[in-house]
Amino acid sequence: MTTVATVTVPWTQNDIINASKTHKELQNIKTAGSYINISCENSTNADSDLEIYNLGWEDFEKKEGIVYIVSKVSGKTWEVVPIEETNDHPRARFLKLPAGNNNFQVLGLVVPVEMKDEDICKAAEILESLNCVTKVSLICRQKHTDPHDAVIQCVRTENIVDTLHHLDGLGYTDGPPESSEFGVVDGEEIEIQFESNLYFEYFQYSTLKIKFYSNLSIERYSGHLLVLNKGDQAEDDKYHGHFSYSVLPGRLSIPRQGTFVLYVPKPLEENVTNFPYTLGVPVKALAKFIAYQLTCPNSNSTKWVALGKTLTNGNAQLYHQILENVEEQRDHAEQRERCELYILYWSNHHAQDVTDKIAKIISAHRHPQFEAEAQQFIKPFTPGRGILSNDNLEKMAYVLAKDWEVFAKKLGFSSDEINKIKSNQPGEVRRTLRVLDLWRLSDGAIQKGTDLVKSLHQAARAAQCGAKLLSMISEDL
Predict the structure, then answer these.
(1) Residue 46: DSSP 8-state
(2) Contact of 222 with 229, CB cutoff 8 Å
(3) Helix (H) or strand (E) holding 41
(4) How many degrees, rounded to 5, is the angle at CA 315 between CA 309 and CA 319?
(5) Structural domain count of the chain
(6) How does strand 35-40 pair with strand 103-111?
(7) Residue closest to 214 by CA, chosen among 139, 136, 152
(8) Residues 128 and 142 in one domain
(9) Which residues contact 200 (CB under 8 A, 6 or more apart)?
């Protein structure tokens, strides 16, 4: 003895036609009768007969196609099942419902003559899924203030917008787009595997499972994202990991799976590790500036000779020795380049520490106005403090990273130069560092003189960079 409940779901031919637009397996298929779901309170102890009648069977098959009955029992897949007839009921057919089960589904299908049993069962599974499946998507969001703080939630398709709005209000505004829509049946589990280089704390060696019930609130999982191996993505400016999801086969065996990618930014010091900065930037910038100062507008002016002799403290032999080395480096160079090379050679071979070098180069002017301009010019290059020092270049690069190409164009870089930087430097932060490193010693930048920082600020505004960068540069104006 058992209590039995039945549900029938009628399918019209229009339903099948519409569904076949998405599922090609339903093309050329019609239903014979309704989808029937029989649920018993207990598992049955004996076989039962399901009587199907009043189909006008033979006439129907002559006009429409071959009629098959497909059925499935508790936890099994669809099968084409035999049907019996008796002399007592010539217009009826009987289907055996096997003992030991508590759930049965039955569906009549009209199919082309040549259709295989496996294709018939596949069509039945799709029809069942259209009837009992809830359309959902997975949403994964990260906190803007801490991208390591993330949430994952399974959401009905119609509730995606409201859910995203709610998460935005909690600060979870970043992350990948929601997953592709897929179907899930009550009681099925969605498994989430963490691959590549990111994983949720406590789930490095296990699988996160989210169980779905259409009429119950869906649990939101929140956790802390960790980096598995910092060395694996050393050349990228962000850590990233693939998350794959799949629904375990339950009532449906239709594949439901996909992937999405999460990113977390690297700390600044990790992004710029081993970046090949130009060496001796303050001295090189000052040498360029003074060479331009002393040979402008005539690039072949010899005014710089007096400064060169002052640097060697009147030692004529040393002065001529340095000149000979300059000649070896650049034969027939203009006086502007000779001046720059002379200062650099003196600095590299005959000077003490960096501070001493800079002070001596500036004082060798012996011209109050020129000295004042040189002292003003070199301030942005002061290590640790100046906006064009390595430390502040790193900070700017991190803020600028997403807009580095636009910014590079505003600074005067050509498309070929930008493409070369792309090919030589991995990641946006390092590419931005290369742009800033090259620009601060370019002829165009040096010739801005004491307006150098102002020029950088104007380029940032023209590139529509954010307020944070503009504020950083403004401090050095």
Answers:
(1) S
(2) no
(3) none
(4) 55
(5) 3
(6) antiparallel
(7) 136
(8) no
(9) 150, 194, 208, 221, 223, 224, 225, 226
Q: Under 8 Å CB-to-CB from 63, ≥6 apart: which residues?
A: none
Per residue in 427-454, pLDDT (tens digit) is 888 899 999 999 999 999 999 999 999 9
C-alpha–C-alpha distance, residues 409 and 318, integer Å = 44
50: β partners? 95
Q: Could you say which of 199, 233, 266 is where a domain stops?
A: 266
What's this model's pTM, rounded to 2 decimal places?
0.51
Pairing label, strands 103-111, 30-31: antiparallel
Place of tokens 């060696």: 205
Residues 237 and 339 occupy one common structural domain: no
Which domain CATH number covers 94? Answer: 2.60.220
pLDDT, tens digit, for every residue of 37-46?
A: 888 888 889 9
Unique residue bearing structure tokens 């640097």: 311
pLDDT of residue 56: 54
CATH code for the domain in which residue 173 is found: 2.60.40.2660
The two three-digit tokens of residue 407, written as one number: 């910014």
Q: Encoding tokens for residue 331? A: 């034969």
Cα–Cα distance for residue pair 65/253, rounded to 1 Å: 27
The pair of structure tokens assigned to 345 is 């050679």
| Paired strand residues for 244 | 193, 259
**Cis before residue 297, ω within 30 degrees of 0?**
yes
Sign of CA dihedral 454, 297, 334, 322: negative
β-strands 221-227, 198-200 pairing: antiparallel
Burial class (CB in 10 A: 0-12, 13-18, 19+), 321: middle
Does residue 475 have a pLDDT over 60? yes
Give the pLDDT score at 234.
Answer: 67
Q: Are residues 446 and 369 in the same domain?
A: yes
Task: Compute and round to an integer the Cα radius of gyration of the chain.
Answer: 38
| Residue 275 placed within a domain | no
Residue 272: inside a domain, yes or no?
A: no
Looking at the fold, whether 303 and 447 belong to one and the same domain comes out as yes
CA separation for the pair 158, 164 (Å, rounded): 12
Are residues 293 and 206 part of one domain? no
**φ, ψ for residue 310 (rounded to 5)?**
-65, -40
Q: Containing H/E element for 464?
A: none
In a domain, 211, yes or no: yes
DSSP conformation letters of 302-361: -THHHHHHHHTTT-HHHHHHHHHHHHHHSTT--HHHHHHHHHHHHHHHH--SHHHHHHHH
User: Of the candidates 97, 115, 132, which is a domain's last residue?
Assistant: 132
The parent domain of residue 186 ranges over 134-266
- Residues 122 and 141 reside in one and the same domain: no
Do 10 and 123 share a domain, yes or no?
yes
Q: How far apart are CA 172 and CA 145, in angstroms?
A: 9
Task: Tell me, yes or no, whether 274 lies in a domain.
Answer: no
Q: What average pLDDT does the segment 52-76 reach?
A: 73
295/429 same-domain check: yes
